[in-house]
Amino acid sequence: MIQDVLHFFGRAICHQLEERSLHASGETLSVCARDTGIYIGIFSTLAYLHLVKRKVKITIPSIKMSFFLLLLMVPMAVDGLGSYLHLFESNNLRRIVSGTCFGFVLPYFLYPLLSAKALENESQPVIADLKDFFVPVVLCSALGGLVYWGMISYYMIDGLIILIIIVWFGLCSSFLFSRIQNIRLKSALSMICGAAFLSILSFLHSFIIS
Known about the structure:
mainly alpha; 4 strands; about 5% strand; membrane
């Protein structure tokens, strides 16, 4: 039952090809290796920023740092495009590494925008020193390694990944409720909206391939 729910939400964003997916406790994860990497990266940076920066006035990274972060997203684009065009054969290690590089960049741009103070002049860039960059890198590298080598139980890692997918889509949905001042109500509506959107995508996916 739990596994069916996890795969239901995973189907919303992923092709779920077994040969391109990682395994834990003998079970195939609900999303492929590349998507696993993306959401491990998102989780690592998001967790760090929420713990360390949630009470700080922050804005998006500086222009120079933004350019550097965007470069880290290139490997996944190259790996994915090259694989789909059959220019070369990828593998799950390359998929999870390139996906992690892509995913851990995203919260640096989205998380600051969740605050109304992001546009204030005194707001500081979300990456103020090397620690703000390297701590998420170390965290996602360690977590990615544990997942790749199957050292975390299936329900723990698959449940975490699906939860992060729902949370991420919820955060993206939160801009629809920007005028709501009640934080708890706004968060609840955002998560419901994110889960509903993923459910629709999953049903559409099932309908198309059936």
